[in-house]
Design brief:
Elements lengths: L3 H15 L5 E7 L6 H11 L10 E7 L4 E6 L1 H6 L4 H13 L4 H19 L15 E3 L2
Parallel strand pairs: 1-2, 1-4
Antiparallel strand pairs: 2-3
Helix pairs in contact: 1-5, 4-5
């Protein structure tokens, strides 16, 4: 799906976004998604214990490129900050890249947009701790 170089670009986009915020952003790439992508993303969000951050400010970008599906899930602190339609706008922008086969660019753009939102609500603090790993998660199920 993504080359090692592309994976590194995604991780770097996560680190760049998180460098300006205390929020946590993760990306999961699924081999298959047989269900509603929002349901799959929510299950993965819970499985990864992303709902345990101190400020409840984590976001999961879930992508199943082979099935042309994606979803974004934000914890309670983030959902409060997102205006209605924000998550859909993130997905629309990502899909504009996906339809041209530019999966990596779409994911990085999504991470950037999420980063802008979380930075406005959760600016980086002096004692910020990276609570969740920045590596891309592979979902082989």
């Amino acid at each position: 799906m993504l080359t090692p170089e592309e994976l590194n670009r995604v991780v770097e986009s996560i680190r760049a976004a998180e460098g300006r915020t205390s929020a946590e952003i993760r990306v999961c790439i699924a081999k298959k998604c047989k269900e509603n992508p929002l349901d799959a993303a929510y299950k993965k969000f819970k499985q990864l214990k992303m709902d345990t951050t101190a400020l409840r400010n984590s976001v999961l970008i879930y992508v199943a490129p082979d099935n042309h599906k994606a979803a974004v899930v934000g914890d309670s602190g983030i959902d409060e900050a997102a205006q209605e339609g924000f998550w859909d706008s993130v997905l629309e922008e990502m899909f504009s890249f996906f339809k041209n086969g530019r999966i990596c660019e779409g994911i990085c753009r999504g991470v950037g947009k999420v980063g802008e939102l979380v930075n406005s609500r959760y600016p980086v603090s002096e004692n910020d701790v990276n609570e969740l790993c920045d590596d891309v998660i592979w979902d082989e199920e």
